[in-house]
Design a protein that fits this description.
This protein has 316 residues and is of the alpha/beta class. The chain is built from twelve helices and eleven strands.
Length: 316
């Protein structure tokens, strides 16, 4: 039975010039009451402005008890990993082990490149920064003295016999899921991380692409049964199919500032009645996805309830 998560509309609230957080926390509480298994927030500094994900999740952790809390997705390359390790460890303690660290490398588009420049981070080195930075986080989460880089190795950061405190709630820190659906991303997911978290595969492609993640895990001597197959999906649910489609296009146009049809080619989205939404969601579960994270194109209270009904109807 797949787990179902909900993405809080942090980006949308800022677009609406509504920077307060009370409504976001209320949505988190409502989602918990409706039985959602996880709550998520996105990340961006200037390209797609929104609330800081780790700070907001700390507040969500204090207001909820059961759902897992995740980033969809965090951009570790924008952050110093020593600072990030401390922030995530603190958040995981507040949440008592409910944190999932969804991460990504960021798309190659002009406003994201500008965001990296503003943060003083070289965009072209972001993959290496992500991989090394997360490895350093995991080393620090051990609670043991860390020297970085390891003898004989090169690294971007220097740590000398230092111990991080607090450590996360869980010994190795929170599970790390990596986004991206290109071959290299799937290989990284299987070799290094705890889950695969794409938003672009069609349902028919999900199973064969997940097979690549599993193969990479086995090649690295890891147990693929311990990895999570996740999927990030956007929905506009409405009995009027045209109205649903118009709402989805308007939402994506405002969110990303580009042609929504181009976005829909890269990010799998649904627009239409609840019964068809149920079939679409189920198609990913049937393909092997075990954790589905839903982003709604507006009308969050209504969508939360509609998706909860769909889940009950599916027997999940």
């Amino acid at each position: 039975m797949p787990r179902v998560g909900y993405l809080l509309p942090t980006r949308e609230r800022v677009m609406e010039k509504c920077d307060e957080t009370a409504s976001l926390l209320a949505l988190a509480e409502k989602a918990e009451g409706l039985g959602y298994d996880s709550l998520w927030v996105g990340d961006s500094l200037l390209a797609r402005p929104r609330h800081d994900p780790l700070t907001l999740l700390a507040a969500v952790a204090a207001r909820t008890r059961k759902p897992e809390l995740g980033t969809a997705v965090l951009l570790p390359a924008l952050r110093n990993p020593v600072v990030l390790a401390q922030q995530v460890a603190t958040l995981d303690r507040i949440a008592e082990g409910r944190v999932i660290l969804g991460v990504g490398i960021a798309p190659d588009v002009p406003n994201v490149r500008a965001e990296f420049t503003a943060a003083g981070v070289p965009f072209d080195k972001r993959v290496g920064r992500l991989v090394e930075g997360l490895a350093l986080c995991r080393a620090l989460w051990s609670g043991k003295p860390v020297t970085w880089p390891k003898p004989g190795a090169e690294g971007r950061w220097t740590v000398k016999e230092s111990v991080l405190g607090p450590t996360p709630h869980r010994p190795r820190g929170p599970p790390i899921w990596i986004a991206g659906a290109v071959t290299a991303s799937r290989a990284r997911a299987g070799k290094l991380y705890d889950g695969w978290f794409p938003n672009s595969p069609l349902a028919k492609d999900y199973a064969p692409e997940w097979t690549e993640v599993v193969a990479a895990a086995r090649a690295a001597g890891r147990d693929p049964s311990k990895l999570t197959a996740a999927m990030y999906m956007t929905l506009s649910i409405d009995d009027d199919a045209k109205r649903a489609d118009d709402k989805l296009n308007a939402y994506l146009k405002e969110y990303y500032g580009v042609d929504p049809l181009e976005t829909r080619k890269r990010q799998k989205s649904f627009a239409g009645p609840a019964a068809e939404a149920a079939a679409w969601i189920k198609s990913y579960a049937d393909a092997g996805a075990t954790h589905l994270v839903l982003r709604f194109a507006g009308d969050h209270d209504r969508h939360l309830e509609a998706a909860a009904r769909i889940r009950r109807d599916l027997g999940w």
